[in-house]
Design a protein that fits this description.
single chain; alpha/beta; Rossmann fold; 13 helices; globular
Length: 356
Amino acid sequence: MTDSNWLGPAGRIAYTAGQAARVAWFFGQYALAARLSGPALPAARRPAGVTVPDRGAILRGLRALLARDLANIEAGYYRMPHDLLPGPRRVLADAAAFFADLPAVARRRRGRIGREVRAAPPPGSERLPAYYRQNFHFQTDGYLSAESARLYDHQVEVLFGGGADAMRRQALVPIHQHLRERRQADCRLLDVAAGTGRFLTFVKDNHPRLDATALDLSHAYLAEARRRLAPWARSTRVVQALAEAMPLPDSSQDVVTCVYLFHELPRRVRAAVAAEIARVLKPDGIAVFVDSLQTGDDPAMDGLLRLFPLAFHEPYFADYAAGDLPALFAAAGLTVRSCELAFLSKVIVLAKTGAS
C-alpha cells in the first residue's frame, strides 16, 4: 500500500452510502429486537441515578468514528472495506437467523441464565476452562458451537449499530505504521482470541504476505475463521489454545493483536494473558490492544458501562471497566506507547518495557 489512497468523490459517496445503509440496517434490527423481546435491561433492574446518552449522542459518536475510518482510508492506512454490506442474500439470511435465535436469548436474559452451556456442554467443550464455558451476552451455546460462530458478527454489529468493524479497523493504523519500513513477508502477526477471523481478514486484505496466526479457544469459531481466511491459507494458520498458555516461542511475533478479549476474562487470567503477550512479542515488536472503554475514559459513556454487564451476561466486565490497564501491562513487562478512544472502544499500542 502507498501512503496516499485518496478515494475521490465516487469513493467517498460509495463509503458514505454504504455506511449509512449499514447503520440504518443494524440500528433498525436493534430497535425491532427490543420491541419483540423487551428492553435489554428492564427499568426495574436499573440502578438509581445512572444516566446514559440518548440515541442522538450515540449516533454522533458513531458518525465521528466513521469519519475517522474514512480519513484513515484516504490516508492509506488501510483499504476501503469491500463488504460494508454483504450481498442481499447473506444480509437477509443473517437477519433471519438473528431473529430466529432472539426468543432463546430473551428467555436467558429474563431468567438470568448465563451458564447454560455448563449443564449441557457442546461436544468437545467439556474440558475448557469454567470461565469460558458461559453464555456470554446470553447467546446460544456461548462461543462453543458452529451456529454461534455463524451468528456472532451479526449480533455484535446489531449491538453497536453497525460500528463494530470500524472500531476493529482502528487497530490497522498502528499495524501499518509498524510494518511500513519492514519486509512484510519476513514478519509475523499473532491475533489472540481471533474468534471468527473477522479482524484478521482486514489485516490480510491489507498485508497479504504477512505471516499470520489466529489463536482462539473455540474449535467452532476457528473453523469459521479458517473458512474466512481461506484466500490467504498459505500464509495463515489457526491454533486452538489458551491465551494464557500460548504454544508459541518466546520473542517470535512482530505484532500481537488482541481485540475484545480482556473484558471477558477474570482478573487473574487477564494478567496471565498480558504476560504471554509480552513473552511472545519480539523486543522491537508492538502489541495492539482493542477493547471496551473503561470508566472515566469518556464520562458521557460511563452509565452505559455501568449498565452493560447487567443487560448482557458479562461476568467480568465491571472489574475490567474499573481496572488499571497500564499497571496491568507494566507488571507483564509492557509499556503503553499510545491510547486513543474510538467510539465505545479504546486502542492501546504497547511495546516491551525498555524497547526504543
